[in-house]
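Onboarding guide, step 5: your first structure request.
Type a short instruction followed by the sequence, for example:

Predict the 3D structure of this protein.
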Amino acid sequence: MDGTGHLWLQPYYVAGTEPPPFEILAPDGTWLGSVTLPPGLHRAFIQYQAPYMEIGDDYVLGVWTDELDVQYVRMYRINK
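The system replies with structure tokens like these:
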């Protein structure tokens, strides 16, 4: 759920395949659209906690991993 109460749903996908876009729903259930994350951006798995990704009113914050498996925090603007 983002900062405005919109629900972000991501359909199930097989690990190692390209993740499908998130489907965005308004609090009343109205479909608002879909968002595809930039390649390589994913949720961080913090030990003993749920996967971490922050979705704000106009940004997505997640973890990007380079070719050496070094993780970086990246923020992307959402253009509505």
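Each response can be followed by summary notes, for example: The CA atoms of residues 21 and 36 lie 4 Å apart.
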